[in-house]
Amino acid sequence: MRCPACSRKMTALFTSYVCDWCDGHKKPIPVARGWVIWRRGQTAEERECYVFPTPQMAEYYRAVTNVEGDVRQVLSEMPIRWSDGKGNIKNLRLAERLYTIYPDHRFEPGPFRAFLAPEESRRAA
Length: 125
Fold this sequence. Notes:
14% of the residues lie in helices and 28% in strands. By secondary structure, the chain is of the alpha+beta class. It has one domain. The protein is built from two helices and nine strands. The mean pLDDT is 85. The strands form three sheets. Strands 3-5-9-8-4 form a five-stranded mixed β-sheet. Strands 1-2 form a two-stranded antiparallel ribbon. The protein has a two-stranded antiparallel sheet with strand order 6-7. It starts with 10 loop residues before the first strand and ends with a helix.
C-alpha cells in the first residue's frame, strides 16, 4: 500500500498502515540545497519557484525584481544543476529550470522538487 501524501511504501501494522516518512520516523537525505524567495500564503501548498545557489544570489534577484518574500533554504533529494540566467538580469545564477517547492518533506519524490528546510536549520545557516 502507498501513502496518499508522498506515494512511498507504507508499513503494515496489526490493523492499519503507517507511513514512516510522513509520520516523522524517517527523514529524506538531502543531497543538494538552494535558496528561494518564499512568499507567505494563506495555505501551505507547493509552488513553483526559481532556486538560487546562494542566499546572496536570491537577495540580489529579490532586490532587482522587487519581489516580496523571505529568502528561505530548500533541500533536494536529487542534485541541482545550476546555469547562468538567460534574461535581462546580469550576473544571475540559478537552477536550470523552475522547481516545485513543498512546505515540508511529505511529498512524492522526483526530479525538480525540493522542500523548505526546517526552521531550526534556517537559524543555523
